């Protein structure tokens, strides 16, 4: 790297290490490299959110590129353009002079152009006897050539993120439609169940959806809506199966029901007396693995557990499981009871169950007994985290709305 590749700005404009770094990168261009100037401009436009660029800054960049006489930016060519402010204003759709200067500074800070100022700050070129440009002062487009691959990757990231955002919105639209119409169908056909409270959960979710903007927020909302849809479908399926059973069997029979078909707001497990009422046929069936719900949903439903994570935060499932062990000890749950829960539910679900118990600690007499009850139900295939999480999501979301 030659020291002559670094220049400082004219007048009161300060020199920063960031500008030095940009100039080093601009000087490190592969020999013989070239790129279509409008292609790299389109990549910069696509990546503008990651680069922190406004539309006016892109208009100024477009104007600067229009003063470069060739279509391709070449490593062996003169990459400095030297239009006056008046010329730039004319080609940038007549923007104000102050706006022009502000956006030139933005482009410099973003590392897309760099200043190559003359001794007096004027922009001009000096030609040799052959009429070729010998020295030019103005704005160098070398950073665009040097960063062309990087800008292409940034543009691809934005396009991919927008694609995922579009897919999430489409899936949310379908999930909203399904939940809304399934609830309406259940109410109109008189399906037993507390559908008013199920609908209230849906309305609260919709109120949060209006504020969701980022992909992470929308993905979280999609998880909640799909969970709600799954629970509503389970309720309807249970009702349909019961009707078919009534039609096919006019004799005496016991009504079997698992926790997937309970009210969406139920949290407490069934009593031993209620469990004893289950049919022997139900108890003989093999338990299916319990679904693991997204960590983000668990943390939204059970925010108190975060304080017990490493460093007072939870960044992954391992952190949640670590916090669950701390909470287990704090609430007086024996190691054997928690180990049994891990074996029956899986370590992630057991940790989520401990987080839910912590949220309801003030309403549960014995945390250890509560967890053993959940573990017993999980072994019989009678327990799902879905109703638990949806109940807590409703409570915490409602509290946030009231606040």
Give a written overview of the molecule.
By secondary structure, this protein is mostly helical. The chain has 3 domains: 144 residues, Arc Repressor Mutant, subunit A (Orthogonal Bundle); 86 residues; 103 residues, no CATH class. It is 59% helix and 6% strand. The chain contains 18 helices and 6 strands. Strands 3, 4, 5 and 6 form a 4-stranded antiparallel beta sheet that branches. Strands 1-2 form a two-stranded antiparallel ribbon.
List the helices and strands and how they pair.
Blueprint: H1 17-27, E1 34-36, H2 37-46, H3 48-51, H4 55-66, E2 72-74, E3 80-81, H5 85-91, H6 97-109, E4 114-116, E5 124-127, E6 133-140, H7 142-146, H8 148-188, H9 195-209, H10 215-248, H11 272-276, H12 280-284, H13 295-301, H14 317-330, H15 335-345, H16 347-359, H17 367-379, H18 385-402
Shape: elongated
Number of strands: 6
Q: How does the helix and strand content classify structurally?
A: mainly alpha
User: Which topology of the largest domain does CATH recognise?
Assistant: Arc Repressor Mutant, subunit A
**What is the helical fraction, as a range of percent?**
55-70%
For the record, the CATH class of the largest domain is Mainly Alpha
CATH architecture of the largest domain: Orthogonal Bundle
Number of domains: 3
| End-to-end separation | 59 Å
- Elements, N to C (H/E): HEHHHEEHHEEEHHHHHHHHHHHH
Share in β-strands: 5-15%
Average pLDDT value? 79
Task: Summarize this entry quickly.
The protein is mostly helical and 403 residues long. Helices cover 59% and strands 6% of the residues.
């Amino acid at each position: 790297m030659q020291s002559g590749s670094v220049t400082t700005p004219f007048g009161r404009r300060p020199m920063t290490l960031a500008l030095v770094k940009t100039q080093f990168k601009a000087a490190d261009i592969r020999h013989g490299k070239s790129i279509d100037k409008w292609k790299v401009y389109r990549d910069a436009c696509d990546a503008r959110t990651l680069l922190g660029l406004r539309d006016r800054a892109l208009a100024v960049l477009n104007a600067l590129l229009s003063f470069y006489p060739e279509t391709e930016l070449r490593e062996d060519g003169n990459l400095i353009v030297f239009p006056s402010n008046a010329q730039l204003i004319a080609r940038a759709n007549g923007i104000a002079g102050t706006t022009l200067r502000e956006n030139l500074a933005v482009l410099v800070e973003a590392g897309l152009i760099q200043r190559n100022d003359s001794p007096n700050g004027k922009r001009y070129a000096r030609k040799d006897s052959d009429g070729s440009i010998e020295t030019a002062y103005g704005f160098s487009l070398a950073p665009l050539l040097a960063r062309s691959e990087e800008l292409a990757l940034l543009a691809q990231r934005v396009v991919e993120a927008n694609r995922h955002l579009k897919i999430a919105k489409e899936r949310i639209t379908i999930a909203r439609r399904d939940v809304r119409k399934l609830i309406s169908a259940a109410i109109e056909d008189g399906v037993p169940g507390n559908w008013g409270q199920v609908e209230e959960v849906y309305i609260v979710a919709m109120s949060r959806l209006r504020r969701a903007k980022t992909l992470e927020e929308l993905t979280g909302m999609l998880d909640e809506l799909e969970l709600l849809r799954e629970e509503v479908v389970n309720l309807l399926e249970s009702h349909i199966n019961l009707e078919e059973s009534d039609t096919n069997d006019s004799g005496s029979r016991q009504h079997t029901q698992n926790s997937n078909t309970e009210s969406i707001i139920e949290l407490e497990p069934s009593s031993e007396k209620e469990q004893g009422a289950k049919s022997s046929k139900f108890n003989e069936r093999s338990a299916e693995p319990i679904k693991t719900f997204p960590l983000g949903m668990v943390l939204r439903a059970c925010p108190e557990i975060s304080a017990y994570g490493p460093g007072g935060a939870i960044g992954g499932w391992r952190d949640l499981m670590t916090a669950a062990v701390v909470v287990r000890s704090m609430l007086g749950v024996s190691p054997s009871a928690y180990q049994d829960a891990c074996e029956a539910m899986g370590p992630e679900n057991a940790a989520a169950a401990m987080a839910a118990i912590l949220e309801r600690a003030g309403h549960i007499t014995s945390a250890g007994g509560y967890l053993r009850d959940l573990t017993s139900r999980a072994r019989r295939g009678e327990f799902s985290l879905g109703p638990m999480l949806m109940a807590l999501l409703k409570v915490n979301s409602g509290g946030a709305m009231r606040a």
